[in-house]
Amino acid sequence: MNCVRPILPGSAIGVLGSGQLGRMFAIAARRMGYRVHTLSPDEDTPTGQVADVEVNAPYEDLDAVCKFASGVSVVTFEFENVPAETAAAAERCAPVRPSGHVLHIAQHRLREKTFLSESGFPVTRFKRVGCPQELPEAAAEIGLPAILKSADFGYDGKGQFRIHNAEDFEAAWQAAGGREAVLEAMVDFDREISVVAARTIGGEFGHYAPIENQHANGILDLSISPARIPERVAKEAVEITRAVLEKLSVVGVLCVEFFVRKDGSLLINELAPRPHNSGHLTVDSNLTSQFEQQLRAVCALPLGGGARFAPAAMANLLGDVWANGEPDWVATAAIPNVKIHLYGKLDPRPGRKMGHLTALSTSVDDAITDVLCARRSLTR
Length: 380
Ligand code: AMP
Description:
Elements: E1 12-16, H1 20-31, E2 35-40, E3 53-56, H2 62-70, E4 74-77, H3 84-93, H4 100-106, H5 109-118, E5 126-129, H6 135-142, E6 146-150, E7 160-163, H7 169-175, E8 181-185, E9 189-199, E10 205-207, E11 211-216, E12 219-225, H8 231-247, E13 252-261, E14 266-272, H9 282-285, H10 290-298, E15 312-318, H11 329-333, E16 338-342, E17 353-360, H12 364-377
Parallel strand pairs: 1-2, 1-4, 2-3
Antiparallel strand pairs: 5-8, 6-7, 6-8, 9-10, 9-11, 9-13, 11-12, 12-15, 13-14, 15-17, 16-17
Helix pairs in contact: 1-10, 2-3, 3-4
The chain binds adenosine monophosphate.
Residues 124, 147, 149, 154, 157, 184, 186-187, 192, 215, 218, 257, 269-270 line the site of adenosine monophosphate.
């Protein structure tokens, strides 16, 4: 039984973190009449630009975090690398959804993989590496090639190194940050997919169809919905995702990233306890976006209908697109089935996520062609 009182429009929602995920959350929340407060160490942020209140404080300033949480009806986050103490401080002053416990697991690869494997979920073979001396033994056990990943604060392929032979050990240890790491077997996958799902405090579960993801240099480049996988694999991915959200008692949105192997079997790569870059296309292609689902879940409202209007493809716009000056927005704006999303970031550094394009079309293949063509038209 769900006895939790819903948090109604007009209430203030607190967001820890201030990037593009918070920005799109804030847009969804404001559309439904909520107020949004954001806290992060930065100023004039993607979230702050559209929030009602932007608080500028380090996550370690627990007094500021408590004051922030006291001014809102619920706290959520858009950035999982918030320190555990920050989530705990917020939890003393307001409900935090998803809970600090979910954050604690998902922000640390080793804890996450240990939780997943101990719960019986399929994960890549892995071994903890606590110091460089442990690397040769771990490599012998896991086999080479393998990937060394920092245990904490990793995202977008950062803090990772592909080890091919023993000569790579030193460079790998340094690249992984010279601290606790996880050695993972290299997966010979057919493709990568993600399932973005939402769960309410009463246990209502909503999900999108698996989305197919292609990466470039460890960063998401292209997402495709629905993923081009057999129905059986799609169903299994959704069932695993449902079980992960249940097991963690997630209240909010969580994305499970999978490798699909050539035989159709699935391995979980990682969890993101928040809306995910691959789910950005839901803003244009689905009746309820991943950000509105997050809002509904953390406010104890029923989830929205997830119906998809059309096959969709999303291409990220990294700072590299600005390499030769201002992109040609007029050319891209002229393409009728493509939507432009920009995050309000002023400094287009190479590799920095500045925005994305989404194309809707009659088939997945056409959506891919159109979104890639639209991206090219920005720099032609
Ligand atoms: P991650 O930050 O762990 O999600 O890794 C970024 C990307 O690197 C993934 O989306 C994959 O494309 C690739 N990758 C990560 N781990 C593995 C693995 N064990 N085997 C093969 N590719 C991987």
